[in-house]
Specification:
Elements (H helix, E strand, L loop, with lengths): L5 H19 L4 E4 L17 H17 L5 H21 L6 H9 L8 H14 L7 H13 E2 L1 H23 L7 E7 L6 E7 L2 E7 L4 E2 H11 L4 H14 L8 E3 L3 H11 L1 H5 L2 H14 L7 H13 L2 H11 L4 H11 L4 H14 L11 H8 L5 H10 L4 H10 L13
Parallel strand pairs: 3-5
Antiparallel strand pairs: 1-7, 2-6, 4-5
Helix pairs in contact: 1-2, 1-3, 2-3, 3-4, 5-13, 7-8, 8-10, 14-15, 15-16, 17-19
Length: 420
Amino acid sequence: MPPISPLDGIATRFVQLAHQLNIHTPGYVDAYYGPLELKPIIEDPALYPVSGIIAEAGRLREELRSTLEGHPQRRHYLASNLRALEMRARVVAGEPISLRDEMRACYDIDPLWTEESQLDELHRELSDLLPSSTEPLATRYQQHIVERRAIPADQALQLLEADILPSLRAMTSAFFPLPEMATIALGLKFNVSWSGYNFYLGAFRAGVKFNGSKPMELPQLALIGAHEAWPGHAADLSIHEALLGIGQGRVEHLISLFGSPWCLVSETLAMLGLQVLMSPDEIIAFQQSLFARADRSNLDAKREQRITEIDSALRSAQGNMCLMLEQGSSEQEALNYTKKWRLETDEGAARTLQFIKVFGRAYPFTYYLGLPSMQALFDRPEGKLYWANRILTEPATPSQIRAWVKDGPLALTPLEGDLI
């Protein structure tokens, strides 16, 4: 057996450290589909002190600086992920870490406060799109969801399985190297804080669950199908597993971690899933056809699409909510804020707060902070399909995307990224 290369050795230790840290903070490893021997046999926190994990991550980063072996993009990817792992371990150890420092290290981006004037402008546009009423905007919006957009969960799953996902998969397969064996199984999960979740199982299999405890909105079904399945999470994990994990033996692509640079890239690409596959006019036509099949031809696809886009843009209010909590606001103040600007019900605001508690104060930013850079990348002369292919088949980070935006296809990032 040939000796293991220095870079492969660092990648192996990175995966082992991630599993060790997961013992202290279960859920940090979102999915693992690599060699079983890299997982701890005995999951005893005392065997893997957090201080040792922090020290080893730092040592591996120093080792990366001293080796010139391997492609620079892979070295940068490993260095960025080790920096993120080290930061996550410091948070678990109870160090007083600012949200800014955590975001920079884990997600390779700064947290940003969204000005309320921007949110107010979105509110005004939404008000013009909704049926006229003297009721408050939040009440009108929630009524619109319940009366015109919401459909039973079993009907939503049927539409996803029979109509939406087969079409999205066909387009994804036409544009990207999606493994033929890639499959998903749909289902519902109740009493959770999220709308949809991809439970990746490895071997190109994923289980996609949807929140059955709240209305499923017809105009958002294609968006969430693209996000969780094709060309979103199910596609990117399958392609990376096939091409980089198995094809090139890069074990760092056989693990999916929260609080990592790839996490932000993956969420951003998933948020833009429909836009990657279709033009704006094609999205409208696709939605109108879907409305007809669901006996909702009275819905105007163009208007409903814009309402969905505004709802997505208002997610930045959740980031403001996280910044408020860090700066000492009470939970009630944060709940009131998201109810006002996110147009949430009491129940919806409570789900948002629970989401932050489960996934961490930095995670809500992943749904929108990466969008400007990736949109700028897609607007380059090479086109969105070229760049989506690069992201789906290479070890990309937010720093790498910013470098591509600035300098084009041949750009490479420094070992530790641009450090913002």
